[in-house]
Specification:
3% strand; 4 helices; mainly alpha; two-stranded antiparallel sheet
């Protein structure tokens, strides 16, 4: 590769890292001016973003854990009533107010803040050792 290709690629990696850290891509006037950055400048900036990204990942995991607890609590409440005798019925009732364009489970998970690896219909993770 040539220098301009390397610079273009590292700029894209920086943009992705910035989005992972802050939820948006770097923009003129809001983020650092990268107009004259070198490859090494991008590498240094990415390294500075690493702890921010790690903290964001941990925050998201905690939010997902709380979403699972809240969802399972709702399902348990429905199961404890006489009219909802099965988990399937309780889950249907628990997700009845989730407004989605589709009835896709992934969209329902997203709306409820549940992680994608969580099978809310069965009440378990699809990944070993994860909740």
């Amino acid at each position: 590769m040539n220098d301009s290709t390397d610079l273009y690629m590292i700029a894209g990696i920086y943009s992705d890292a910035h989005k992972d850290a802050y939820g948006f891509r770097p923009r003129q006037g809001i983020s650092p001016d990268t107009t004259n950055w070198t490859y090494d400048d991008y590498v240094a900036a990415i390294k500075k973003l690493e702890p921010v990204i790690e903290a964001e990942i941990e925050r998201e995991k905690e939010e997902e854990r709380i979403a699972i607890v809240e969802f399972e609590s709702t399902v348990s409440q429905f199961l404890s009533t006489v009219s909802y005798s099965t988990r399937e019925q309780a889950v249907k009732y628990a997700i009845r107010n989730v407004e989605t364009e589709y009835t896709d489970d992934d969209e329902i998970k997203w709306k409820l803040g549940l992680p994608y690896h969580y099978d809310f219909r069965a009440g378990k993770s699809l990944l070993k050792g994860k909740i």
